Amino acid sequence: MVENITTTEFDFARGELLLIDKPVGWTSFDVVNKIKFSLRPQRIKVGHAGTLDPLATGLLIICTGKFTKKLEGFQNEDKVYEGIITLGKTTPSYDLETPFDGEFPFEHLSEAKIREVAQGFIGVQMQTPPVHSAIKVDGERVYEKARRGEEVTLKQRQIEIKSFEITSLDGADIHFRIACTKGTYIRSIAHDFGKALGSGAHLSLLRRTVSGDLDVKNAWDLDDLITKIKALKDQA
Q: What is the model's pTM?
């Protein structure tokens, strides 16, 4: 039985900061559980800073052991996201997690208009989170209420969009890069962006690339990390 996984590379019990490139289809909690399970039989605390939706990929900050006390600090950092907002169709979740519920014309929109409206989103503002989100109301995740068809009213929260760059346009697809403060829902920006253009839109791709000074370029592939942990256990 492995009693401890402590090497010159890792000391999970004392505390490690792990940058993970979260794969699509995984929840942030799935990633935490995968790492926690890989460390068994040790009972090591594992947590994450800054939830990513299942359809999103990119930088997920994981802390183990005593480093979990640092999670709040990492969570408070500004973030950078890249992705695609697709014009012409809306969904209840504001992304591709739910079926389309509306279709709108968008062919009349010029590149100049799209870029102009994007600049109007920069600054401090109040944002309403999506009802299909992990926010808790009365002790329950609101997406559970939304899936049952219950009406959910969420309070607005203050956010700041520090930059909103349109990197390219491809038909209905608007490729973007957004820098923002913690707690910003890019899905809500996509939805509100479509409305501001007099059309409709949803988020069709999202990737978190930066959080504070941490970059996804330095992140582990999840499978590679699990393989590394297994190798360390075999050596112990």
A: 0.91
